[in-house]
Amino acid sequence: MLKSKPVIILLAIVGAVVGAYVGVNILTSGLAQVAAIALFGFIGYLIYNGLRRNRSVEKLSDAERARVLGDTPATGGRVIVYREGFVAKLSGFDILIDGVPHAQLKSPQSVVVPVVPGEHQLVAKVAGKGQPPFGFTVGNAETVVIRIGMGIAGCEISRDDNPRIKSKLGTIPMVRADTAATEPSGIGTAA
């Protein structure tokens, strides 16, 4: 991956010039214009189809998010699920834990879900299609952080045990969980 901004800018300019030259030559024929209209229509359909399942979610304020990240559950456990990445970032992923829907996350967003200690299964549904379940264990008074990204094969789900994760989560918008499950801090209450 290129890390130098001048190289990236230069490649973008060269790509734009070459693309414009090729595009002008192709568009001089009538068939190319019909193909371009069909292509734009198809791309529009794909975008509409990918975004039509999105629903509105309530975001927590910065103060609420900071309070949640600062708290540790006294009893029970909780899961913080966050999504990041650019691929399909506007398409909402439905987050199910043990078969119960808890939130829909776009990128970047996160949600806190209170759970009972023990083994659990997380599924992220993309466009109504579920991915293989991701198993994890939560201990009493423990917070488990799970990262969701989008790759070529679909959702990439992994446990994030990075010690600096709280500072990262402090910058990611947090949504309120959908379910009526409650936790002493009230984060799991339905909106």
From TrEMBL:
Keyword Transmembrane helix: yes
Keyword field: Membrane, Transmembrane, Transmembrane helix
Organism expressing this protein natively: Sphingomonas rustica
High-level lineage: Bacteria, Pseudomonadati, Pseudomonadota, Alphaproteobacteria, Sphingomonadales
Full protein name: NfeD-like C-terminal domain-containing protein
Superkingdom per UniProt: Bacteria
Spans traversing the lipid bilayer: 7-24, 30-51
